[in-house]
Amino acid sequence: MNEFLRAAIDEAEAGLAEGGIPIGSVLVHAERILGRGHNRRIQRGSVVLHGEMDALENAGRRPGRIYRECTLYTTLSPCAMCSGAILLYGIPRVVVGENVTFLGEEDLLRARGVVVEVVQDARCRELMAQFIRAQPTLWAEDIGDGDDRIDR
Questions:
Q1: If you ran DSSP here, which 8-state letter would residue 6 be given?
Q2: pLDDT at 131 over 80
Q3: Is 52 a catalytic residue?
Q4: Catalytic pick from 11, 52, 98, 105?
Q5: Which whole number is the average pLDDT over 96-107?
Q6: Is the pLDDT score of 151 beyond 50?
Q7: Is residue 43 exposed (0-12), middle (13-18) or buried (19+ Cβ within 10 Å)?
Q8: Among the listed ranges 5-19, 87-101, 135-149, which one has the minimum average pLDDT value?
């Protein structure tokens, strides 16, 4: 397994251990992790802290050229919000642990020139399946399908 996907999985496992949603991500530049993060919506009561957003936040402010040389590793296919951030910062490559549990905006990313590689990692699928079995309502809320949504 790629060391950077392993680091993203480590983040997902940390999120699960904190009582959150097990999605992790790392932003890599020149074979070095600039930022790592995991979904912290539950832990922080946040509406935006998905794994990818947390990794970007933890990477800190960088010159645009740096983002354009990065690869983002994420354990789950990026949603519309995270895909928008990938496009906004010009990140050219995304490695996705799995997209069976949730198929995000991979087609949009590809249409905009982002290289998207999906590896269908068993541990990524296992983490999500375990979480969804234990917390189906939190999962539905995270992907915007919860019946308790405010935007009715």
A1: H
A2: yes
A3: yes
A4: 52
A5: 96
A6: no
A7: middle
A8: 135-149
Residue 115's region, left for phi above 0, alpha for psi from -120 to 50, else beta, is beta
Q: Which long-range contacts (CB under 8 A, 24 or more apart) does 54-60 make?
A: 54/25, 55/11, 55/25, 55/26, 55/27, 56/27, 56/85, 56/89, 59/27, 59/34, 59/35, 60/34, 60/35
Helix residue spans in 96-151 (DSSP H)? 106-111, 122-134, 136-142
By the 8 A CB rule, do 16 and 136 touch? no
Give the residue among 30, 33, 31 at the shortest CA–CA distance from 7.
33
Task: Report the 10 Å Cβ neighbour count for 80.
Answer: 10
Q: How far apart are the first and last CA of the chain?
A: 43
Residue 46 Cα distances to 28, 50, 57, 75, angstroms = 24, 9, 13, 20
Alpha-carbon span 60 to 63, nearest angstrom: 10
DSSP letter assigned to residue 72: E
**Whether the predicted pLDDT of 149 surpasses 50:** no
**Distance in angstroms (rounded) separating the CA atoms of residues 79 and 76:** 9
Strands 115-118 and 93-96: parallel
Q: How many CA atoms lie within 13 A of 151 on its CB side?
A: 4
